[in-house]
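Notes to self after the call with IL:
- keep both proteins in one doc
- input above output, always
- annotate only the second one for now

Protein 1:
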Amino acid sequence: MAPTTLATAPLATTPPPAAAPTVDLLSEPTFEECIEEWNRYHDDVAAGRLNGANVPVNNYFAYHGGRIIDYDPDF
């Protein structure tokens, strides 16, 4: 017996997952979010949790969420 719907039919596609965040990735962080990250950074430095051993000399790094995300020689 032949299938009743083709795999390329519009109804056969799966919808995107409902748990996907609806956050605008290009939006600017709020002042409060910036202060929270600034405080977390300084707490990590004071406690010795920030390890910049993998960042080359004379490079700037991007820190977010308690870890170094990336680094680059250009500010």
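Protein 2 (the one to annotate):
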Amino acid sequence: MSTPLLDVWEAAASSPYHPSIAKDSQFTLGAFLLLIALLLAGVFSLNRSILSLPVLGVPASLAFGFGAVYMICAVGVYV
């Protein structure tokens, strides 16, 4: 007797998961994103205005968020 869950399990075995960013390049990408975030945040702190918020503040926070997650995954702490 076959169950739907067993069918899904067997179908998934033939197609392994491949991440979009390889494990070997996560550290480099994370370090690069954190460096970009540091630079953008520094420029934003020197030049604070409502116009620089979408140009510098939002990309800096996104780069820091993704960079932190990639660095955490690169050193072996999985979230």
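Annotation: Helices lie at 4-13, 26-46, 52-74. The mean pLDDT is 89.
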